[in-house]
Amino acid sequence: xxxxxxxxxxxxxxxxxxxxxxxxxxxxxxxxxxxxxxxxxxxxxxxxxxxxxxxxxxxxxxxxxxxxxxxxxxxxxxx
Length: 79
What we know:
Elements: H1 2-30, E1 36-40, H2 47-58, E2 63-69, E3 72-78
Antiparallel strand pairs: 1-3, 2-3
């Protein structure tokens, strides 16, 4: 009986750890800001406004970066 209980607790612990790891991976990947998602129409491009626009338009895991494109700054949203 104790052997079954011990195996059950061990299996539950492994499932819990796996669940925590799977949930945390998207959060870690979301903060890299390397994958281009699109542009936001922010004129003039200011860091705070760009970041907010990207979060509203493409989701909270995205970040906005003002980048030089030709002669003007454009708000690029990255994930």
